[in-house]
Model the fold of this input.
Amino acid sequence: MNSQSDEGKSVKISLSAESIANYFLAVSHPKRIEILNLLAEESMDFADLLRETDLRKTALSNQLTTLTDRHLVKRVSHGHYALTTDGKNVLRVIIDTYKKSRLRKEEERERILERYSYRSDETMTKDIQVEIVQLEPMTVASVQAISKSPEDDAWKKMVSFAEPRGLLKDLKKNPIFGFNSPDPSPESGKYGYEFWIRIDPDMELDEGVTKKKFDGGLYAVTRCNLAKEVASTFMQEHGMLESWFKLGEWFKASGYKMGTHQGLEKSINPNKPDEDLLLDLYWPIKK
Done:
């Protein structure tokens, strides 16, 4: 018991606040965090890091020097860099601590409140928060599945196509939309679901993936927690998301006309645990 106590005390005494501070100064810059995060996926060439970080050559070189001096990043060959074990540990601690922090939770709450704050192009009712959004034309890669669980089956196809191409890393640049295709019917236990992801028009596709052009359009949009709504009493009784029903009721009283473009569901955080999955519902409208 005493030996364990003495051991703990000796470790505490040996720690230098200045050394620890200098060590973590190596990651006290957003670009260095970004570099660590990029290298956590795979080792990368200098040119690839230059493109991904949008830094000048001298600036990137300086950031890499700081990280290599602290043994968080290593040069595995000329112009090719990888994360060290220390780098992986430091990045994991930083991300885990931030995810659990009160600051992160407050920032998320502020972001959601800001999204649904009153603006000239938004309408809010007592039971539902609605934002008017104009989707611009885009080229999309489309996958579809028809089964008893088509969302899961179509999503597997989408991941198989999109993940190797890095499309899932930036959902702002490559947003993902989905919709029933075809709709469920009382006669059949099967129905269809189709996923879209925005791509560059000249991207080559895999077999079973279709390229489509979407003309865009005006939408009324609301957000829901998918897992909670799927498990709700309303879903059990009516066979639909309650937020879709409320959005329809909002539309009836809104003064807008029904649009002819495709209604959509947008995946906000598809890689999150099921209980945290968020979905934006897009009701097509026109003035």
Confidence is low (pLDDT under 50) at residues 1-11, 115-125. The domain at 115-286 is CATH 3.20.80.10 (Multidrug-efflux Transporter 1 Regulator Bmrr; Chain A). The longest strand covers residues 138-147. The chain has two domains: 2-98, 115-286.
